[in-house]
Design a protein that fits this description.
The chain is α+β, with helices and mostly antiparallel strands. The protein has two domains: 244 residues, no CATH class; 54 residues, no CATH class. It is 41% helix and 14% strand. It is built from eleven helices and seven strands. Strands 1, 2, 3, 4, 5, 6 and 7 form a seven-stranded antiparallel sheet that branches. Strand 5 and strand 6 form a beta hairpin. The longest helix is centred in the last third of the chain and has 20 residues. It is elongated and about 100 Å long.
Length: 311
Amino acid sequence: MGYKKPMETTRTYLENAPLPNHGKSYTVVTHKSVIDNTLSLLKTSGFTVTEERYKCNVNANVAQGIYYIRPNSTDTQVNNEEELGMMFAWTNSYDKSTRFQCSIGAYVKICGNGMVAGDMYNFKRKHTGSADLDIRNQLSNQIKNAEKYYKRLISDKELMKVIKLNCQQQSELAGRLFIEEDMLDSQQMTCVKAEMDKPSFNYNCGDQTAWAFYNHVTHALKKAHPRDWLADQQNFHDFMTAECLNHTALQFAKTDWKVNYDNTPLGITNADDETCINTNIEVDTTVDMPQIEVDFDISPAKLKQDMFMGR
């Protein structure tokens, strides 16, 4: 949910934040170790970090790191993508208010809106036991699979561009996000409405598309608390997948198909007599068909018609 004063901060501030003391069962995962491991693993895996962004609450008890990254890729889809960039994000806490979380995602280059799929390879871990070691291993695993998940998000973006959502449909979805899903607060709803009325950015698509609405909401989610931002991004993407992306096949199935009742090419009509049948149709006699008993007094044309009529 939203909060009034999102606090942009620096790497140095997070690294020097006072550490907690919650007893022996609590494993401190320092913001510094998360930052160092993330940057080291990204570099080792061939990624270039183009920008680092950090947020936190008071005293940095909850911190968030977002990294815009560029892969050293030979994949055509990845290299030709102009609208989305690759992103890696994490959330960590010292006050037990949230587990450590991290996920590969994407960001919209023109505005910085986030894009994270909840059913991708994301990770949450309590600060207990071998949490510090487990977190490093998960950071490594996610970064190694970054390109695969990034390509999935590119495909989702392209699909949302062709899905139509009129103003009423967008309003209904926004209302559900506010009331049913508890994903947006009143401040964020106001932001979504303002973006629907007059978008702050050109998303290279029509205003009445799923992609436009997606960006209106993720723009509003920038106001989310660092504790909630990553989960909100994931939950919203899952919501849009269920409501829009998965319905595309259903919309396609509802296409006004017309049944072709013209049986002329088959030499058959709906009239139940022999004269309606074109007896000049050539039959492939080379095909090995199973033998069946037939009435030799019946003409071939009549037999064909009886089979068509289901007798």
